[in-house]
Request: fold
Amino acid sequence: MNDLEEKNELDTRYEVLKIALQEQNLSDFRENFLELHIYEQGQFYESLTEKERAQMYSYLSPKELADMFDSLEEDEDALKEYLEEMRPSYAAAMLSAMYTDNAVDLLNLLGKKDTAKYLSLMSPEAAAEIKELLHYEDETAGAIMTTEYVSILANQSVGSAMRYLKKEAAVAETIYYIYVVNDQNQLVGVISLRDLIVNEDETFISEIMSERVISVHVGDDQFDVAQTFRDYDFLALPVTDYEDHLLGIVTVDDIIDVIDEEATSDYSGLAGVNVEEVSESPLKASTRRLPWLITLLFLGMATATLIAKYEVLVSEASILAVFISLITGTAGNAGTQSLAVAVRRLAISDDKEKSFIRVLISEILTGLITGAVTGITIFGIVAVWKGNPILGFVIGMAMMAAITVANLAGSLIPMLMDRLGFDPAVASGPFITTLSDLTSVLIYFNIAALFMSHFQ
Amino acid sequence: MNDLEEKNELDTRYEVLKIALQEQNLSDFRENFLELHIYEQGQFYESLTEKERAQMYSYLSPKELADMFDSLEEDEDALKEYLEEMRPSYAAAMLSAMYTDNAVDLLNLLGKKDTAKYLSLMSPEAAAEIKELLHYEDETAGAIMTTEYVSILANQSVGSAMRYLKKEAAVAETIYYIYVVNDQNQLVGVISLRDLIVNEDETFISEIMSERVISVHVGDDQFDVAQTFRDYDFLALPVTDYEDHLLGIVTVDDIIDVIDEEATSDYSGLAGVNVEEVSESPLKASTRRLPWLITLLFLGMATATLIAKYEVLVSEASILAVFISLITGTAGNAGTQSLAVAVRRLAISDDKEKSFIRVLISEILTGLITGAVTGITIFGIVAVWKGNPILGFVIGMAMMAAITVANLAGSLIPMLMDRLGFDPAVASGPFITTLSDLTSVLIYFNIAALFMSHFQ
Reply:
């Protein structure tokens, strides 16, 4: 099948399901629906009307719906709506049947009151598991971990571990790593299912387990957890508290979401707009973009005020006005490049302290080199175009200085923000360019004032 | 252990290894080295001198080194150097022992001559496997897939499949999905190791396998493959040709690299600089940044030429010069926001054709709203600051028009590039802002010329 055929085949399946709903054919619906992958179930579900969804709730068990809900990646409002339209006891049963980390993500969208309502409708065990995860801070390992892991004791044999695994396989989020704990539930080893399979039933776990377990702490930043996944290529990582007690696991599918989030946030920072929600009304999009635009407008006013101080200079030599936007624009471009490299470097560097001075010197040198080349180029252009080498010299010098300063700002500001504990990606591109406008104008008019008498 | 203790513990291990190398203590070295995770082995290896590395090659078998090389993520030059310093027969043996996809990645760094040399030193089977993957186009499923998967026939029992798996576990890249093929090696089903484990030994594979296999085609773009991983949360996906023959699998660890690459490319595009290599000399960094800067400088010259045409206007009312950078800057910021959202939307949208007009209208409306709010704000400021409401009106109108046009350009250009088959991320931020400078100046001076007689 090619992609198109596959898409058509899937559309046909969705059609068949819709007809089954319309004809109230429960068995047809169930048979065809449960054949779909949970992601496809979710795609179908999202395409339904409220009435059709209500019908689905009566056709599927809370557990069956829970599997699908585990894979839903809708926006907050839609997810809230779905939960609210279910009978509370049905919703609570579904939440209990979901993987705990996903159930917690859903409950975090609701108010405290609704969360309490659903918890009260669950079995005490399910409610306790969820409550345990509810209080972890956002964006930490604790917030993305799940408690559905498999753990065993070291004095078991491979055979008994396999029998235990068979029992747990239905509820665990992953069975491909088995964590070995002592009787205080402290993590002492790890063994992969691959290792279990290639060893004889009689072998003891303690003989074949790896005692050097790579783990993360419950309070670790989720981006650091993602980096550990990138480095070690694991499918799951155990999460412990500060006394090595095993609390849960983070799985690679959740990490892919974290990596996407990380990329989106860096990207949003560079653009000065949160790009997370891309399909919204112009009014909503405007309210999202205006705060930055207006803030930058006021910052830009500083540049305008500065130029106003040189109005006399401009009125004497209006040719100066011609090159304002060229100098501010080029310096802004250089600053953006420098910023992007700095933010990226901070994201992947392990040893930030050591490299601070080195990076700074490197950026100044890069600024001087790019500035000199660009400056000489514009000197040539202006000298020929306007037949005025002195004016060319002024523009070229200003260009070089402005680019060097912009490069410095582009790399210095994110590094300072990082040192002060802020996310360096917040030092956005527009902020750097607007700031660099200010310094560029200052440099430009001061150099121009110096040589004023020579080029007129 | 906390993070710091873990880091210190690892440093101690690296120290012990270095001493073992210095003391030429083979058995100590091997024991301690093989205890490390392959990622850590790689970190240690990268910290060595050429002489120490040469010693390592004599202490480790090609297979042991291959495991470590599978996880190396160094830059091209370093990897080439490593290969070249090994004896050719040792390097060839190591390449044969690596996962085929990684070996191919390495060979792609070398010239044709070197590749042929290593292939000639391998066993015919290993060379054939590698050759098969060498000719797939960059950035396709074929280029990132590996051939170390496990496949079985449908008429086997769970027990016999498990026995086969035990044998294959040592060489397969993943054993957590087993692919079911017919006697023409066409993909007919899939079963997870989890399913094998929970079913009885006597059950036939055909009874429990899933016949709806999600697969990708060998020529599919790697970013599309990554999207399928995101949607379906798989650990691996089978790759087929256009007649459903199973050719290989793509595993989730390779997909994480693809997702990082995707994010870096979008981010680089927005900044107008390739941020992939972050630790390079100022000279190298400059040669990377200058092409864009100089290109944009020439584009910026168009704006300067345009302003030059209005020099008479500026010399009559030098106050106009004060607001040039404010208008170009703000419009540039708006254009960058719009660009970022458009590129993101194109990256995640499934149905690009349908939404083209809708997005365009939405962006124009967003431009008008943000433009109106920003325009009214600047009107108020200028009217009060300069005591000149007519000038304020000119600046406000120009601001609104410039922002709307910049928004339009920011969303239109990436969409057009996408339609023409280019990567929309190449429509970089600096390009959009420089272009928007041009239109902003045009708009500004034309409006100013209209009202010239009124505000002086």
Observations:
- The mean pLDDT of chain B is 88.
